[in-house]
Design a protein that fits this description.
The structure holds 3 protein chains of 3 kinds.
Chain A lengths: L1 H12 L8 H8 L4 H23 L7 H17 L8 H33 L6 H16 L2 H12 L3 H25 L3 H9 L4 H38 L5 H11 L3 H29 L2
Helix pairs in contact in A: 4-12, 5-6, 5-8, 5-10, 6-8, 7-8, 8-10, 9-10, 10-11, 10-12, 11-12
Chain B lengths: L4 E9 L5 E10 L4 E5 L6 H8 L7 E6 L2 E2 L5 H9 L1 E4 L11 H6 L8 H6 L4 H13 L15 H13 L5 E5 L7 H18 L2 E6 L2 H7 L2 E6 L2 E6 L6 H8 L2 H14 L1
Chain C lengths: L1 H29 L4 H18 L4 H4 L2 H33 L7 H16 L2 H12 L3 H27 L1 H9 L4 H39 L2 H11 L3 H29 L1
Helix pairs in contact in C: 4-5, 4-7, 4-9, 4-10, 4-11, 5-7, 6-7, 6-9, 7-9, 8-9, 9-10, 9-11, 10-11
Classes of the chains: A mainly alpha, B alpha/beta, C mainly alpha.
Chain lengths: 289, 262, 261
């Protein structure tokens, strides 16, 4: 043991560069690490902004400890004493179906428009200029919150399912366009070249090569958007009065102050959301990577 | 002289159907270079991982330097692991960190939670790390991120990380299986040097029979979780190799070997 | 044989499409969705935007008030995301297969995360509204809970991607659990984790606007106020301000992403 360790050190120490201090030599060479610097700055900035945020919040004379206690008691009543009062469970399921219907239609309209514009946004099927124009348009669409889209359209056609679907279409379109155009871009350039060489025109290439090779991706992404749209439809129902289970939730909470009903509705939404999440994560692992 | 490592009827069973090791016994002496050969799935990787208890054996006994590996508690096990370096087929480096940071990971077994977690190493440790980097010819890459290195360079970082532990034995799990012939030769030469010049015992899992025959002091053949050969490379016969690899495959490997010798 | 193959493929397509169209029509009638009105609304909305939904000089007076509310909304998004990410990191470390302490804790962490993620942020807001009232904390806590659930799942994926290899290597050289987390898992996944945090801040600015309408705080409240009092010029100014803010934050976070990924 003793012998072995001394050999080890002898060997390690027998290296060149005895004259210069090894550490000094390497310290001089040490490069500036941009990545870790950026990470540190980002984290510090977030920390400072967060602390500052709490100073600027509007607390409205709230006694926080009491509010937290109240909330915990409320949550216990809500989740362990959930019950419906103003409507039946059947009505609840009908309202959930309505919300699912809104989500479905918005996914459909968003998906169809995203498909055609996605072809124009894909760089291998379009020109750079057209692609950038489409992408710029999409980032504008995505910058406006969904509920504002709904309210803006509600001015001209009134609140209700039509305004909700149209409003939800915008973000579905923006989300799916990005997903679709990236799926299209994954198509091997050689395939397009080969079909062009056969004399195929643009639409023929799209329907004979692009669509068949990316169809499973498109469907997977569309379902994932459907999952998101359900949550969005609940939100729009509550905040813009567009109907469905979200509206019932809003009424139960802000109008009737019935926490047991809020609990029951929350359970209903939770059940649907978990089913959708499990389905979409299964679809994700199967079709996307 | 007592052997450095003794393995007595080691068994490892993953579930009812998969038996990786079915009673393997052998011992390794200080300063030996031992290769373990055998087909994929024979239990070679499991065997190495049982020695430093990355995997817990089902049955049997492992003695390292007189200590029963199976009986060590958490702290003792960490201390024992510092004396056993390990290198891997896929290098297992933290790719987003630099070479020097990865090499210093070899000192973690000597560090407390605070210093080790924050990566606070002493000047002596850093100096040692740079020395080992120079010995392995990586001085130009010292501050490069590991994902920018070639396979051969990555494996040398792996060796450096094991060496800085000041180990008495190296476990090498398929060290050259993902490398081209040139890089393979460099890595094998380094491993051989480690044994002959530093007296560190090497236990190497190998796929390439010709490489094993060329570099080893001793060959251990493993098949279906059992030891089927144990002896010097000179006395292993073609038939024994056929037997380990099950006929045709063995033929292919020996042909390669003849070519290499020609 | 050949003909069979093609006709089979065609028929599957036709049947699939037919079922889909019937389903769509049924859903549309069930939800009383009117396609022609929906399409017509684009023309109407466009005309309306040009005629009355634009910021005029009178509405510009309100800009300072709008910016103060915008600040509240942005800070709500940042604070909730940052705090949620700290909690999410702990839950993700105990939830991921790579770093889990034991499988029981892993299931518990994943379960809590799933619960807080799958109850929509609106529902959390409605629950918190009872005790926290129309204060900034209602929106902050609602965003916190939902963001925590989402980020836990995202962080678990990032940590799983690190894989067992570096962990195994550090274990073999005698490293303990904390060494492995700080020296292998975090260095490998931190860039990805920060990218998720930035993504969540972007998303939360939009969600905070929505919550503002419900809880009477931030820029959402201001939009709702102008909207309901038919002050469309001021409401449109709010939209313009939000768009500019979102663009700025997206630009900033894309810049950071380029540096760290």
């Amino acid at each position: 043991m003793q012998i072995q360790e001394s050999i080890y050190h002898l060997w390690i120490n027998s290296t060149k560069d005895k004259s210069v201090d090894l550490l000094a030599k390497y310290n001089e060479r040490k490069p500036f690490n941009k990545t870790s610097f950026a990470i540190k700055i980002t984290l510090i900035a977030l920390l400072i902004l967060t602390i500052y945020s709490f100073y600027t919040f509007d607390y409205k004379n709230l006694i926080i400890i009491d509010a937290v206690k109240d909330t915990l008691i409320n949550m216990r009543t809500m989740f362990f004493g959930a019950s419906l009062r103003n409507f039946t469970i059947l009505e609840g399921i009908r309202q959930v179906s309505f919300t699912l219907g809104i989500a479905f239609l918005a996914t459909l309209t968003g998906g169809i428009s995203a498909f055609f514009l996605g072809l124009l946004a894909a760089q291998n099927l379009s020109t750079k200029l057209v692609s950038n124009v489409v992408k710029g348009f999409v980032s504008f669409v995505r910058a406006v919150p969904t509920v504002l889209w709904v309210l803006i359209f509600a001015v001209s056609i009134g609140l209700g399912s039509t305004a909700a679907v149209v409003g939800l279409t915008f973000h579905s379109f923006g989300y799916l366009l990005k997903a679709f155009s990236e799926s299209f871009e994954e198509l091997d350039h050689g395939v397009i070249e080969a079909l062009t060489a056969c004399g195929a025109n643009w639409w023929q290439i799209v329907f004979q090569a692009v669509v068949p090779s990316s169809l499973s991706y498109l469907l997977a992404w569309t379902f994932i958007r459907f999952e998101i749209n359900f949550v969005e439809a609940v939100a729009v129902g509550a905040a813009a009065g567009a109907g469905g289970i979200g509206f019932e939730l809003f009424m139960a909470s802000a109008r009737y102050f019935n926490i047991r009903e809020v609990g029951a509705i929350t359970f209903l939404i939770l059940a649907v959301a978990i089913i959708l999440e499990l389905t979409s994560s299964r679809i994700k692992t199967k079709f996307i990577k | 002289m007592n052997p450095l490592l003794t393995i007595n009827s080691l068994k490892k069973q993953y579930d009812e159907e998969t038996v990786a090791l079915n009673g393997v016994s052998f011992s390794v002496h200080e300063g030996e270079f031992v290769s373990i050969i055998g087909p994929s799935g024979a239990g070679k990787s499991t065997l190495l991982r049982c020695i430093n208890r990355i995997i817990d054996a089902t049955e049997g006994e492992i003695l390292f330097d007189g200590l029963n590996v199976g009986n060590q508690n958490k702290g003792q096990l960490r201390k024992l692991r510092t004396k056993i370096g390990m290198i891997f087929q896929h290098y297992n480096l933290v790719n987003r960190l630099s070479v020097i940071e990865n090499v210093l990971h070899g000192r973690l077994g000597y560090k407390n939670t605070f210093n080790g977690s924050l990566g606070l190493f002493t000047a002596q440790e850093k100096k040692q790390a740079f020395q080992i980097i120079e010995i392995l010819g990586l001085e130009k890459q010292a501050y490069k991120r590991c994902d920018q290195l070639s396979g051969g360079q990555k494996q040398r970082v792996g060796i450096a990380r094991a060496l800085i532990q000041e180990p008495r034995m190296m476990l090498c799990d398929e060290p050259i299986a993902s490398l081209d012939p040139n890089a393979s030769k460099i890595i094998m030469d380094h491993l051989k040097n480690i044994t002959t010049q530093m007296g560190i015992t090497c236990l190497v899992n190998l796929h390439q029979v010709n490489v094993a025959l060329k570099y080893s002091d001793r060959i251990i053949g493993i098949k279906h979780g059992l030891k089927v050969y144990d002896g010097p490379p000179k006395s292993i016969t073609k038939n024994q190799i056929y037997d380990i690899y099950e006929s045709e495959a063995g033929e292919l490997i020996l042909e390669l070997k003849d070519q290499n010798e020609a | 044989m050949k003909l069979d193959y093609f006709s089979k493929k065609r028929w599957t397509g036709v049947i699939f499409l037919a079922v889909f169209i019937v389903l769509s029509i049924w859903v549309a009638s069930y939800t009383r969705f009117d396609l022609s009105r929906g399409l017509g609304s684009f023309v109407k909305a466009f005309n309306w935007t040009i005629s009355s939904f634009y910021p005029d000089s009178a509405s510009l007076v309100r800009l300072p008030a709008i910016l103060i509310k915008l600040r509240e909304t942005i800070f709500m998004a940042i604070a909730s995301t940052t705090i949620a990410s700290v909690f999410a990191l702990f839950f993700a470390l105990s939830g991921s297969k790579v770093t889990q302490v034991n499988s029981f804790l892993s299931i518990v962490s994943r379960g809590i995360a799933s619960f807080s993620r799958n109850i929509p942020v609106v529902a959390w807001a409605m629950i918190l509204l009872f005790s926290f009232g129309q204060s900034s904390l209602t929106g902050f806590l609602a965003l916190f809970v939902a963001t925590f659930g989402f980020l836990t799942r995202a962080f678990i994926e990032s940590i799983d991607e690190v894989g067992h290899e570096p962990v195994e290597a550090l274990k073999a050289s005698g490293g303990n659990y904390f060494h492995i987390v700080f020296q292998a898992v975090l260095p490998m996944s931190l860039s990805q984790i920060i990218s998720w945090i930035l993504y969540m801040i972007e998303t939360n600015i939009r969600s905070a606007t929505l919550l503002g309408i419900l809880t009477g705080t931030g820029i959402g409240f201001l939009f709702d106020l102008y909207y309901k009092t038919f002050n469309y010029h001021a409401a449109s100014l709010v939209v313009v301000v939000i768009v500019i803010a979102v663009f700025f934050i997206e630009f900033l976070s894309n810049y950071i992403r380029r540096l760290i990924l």
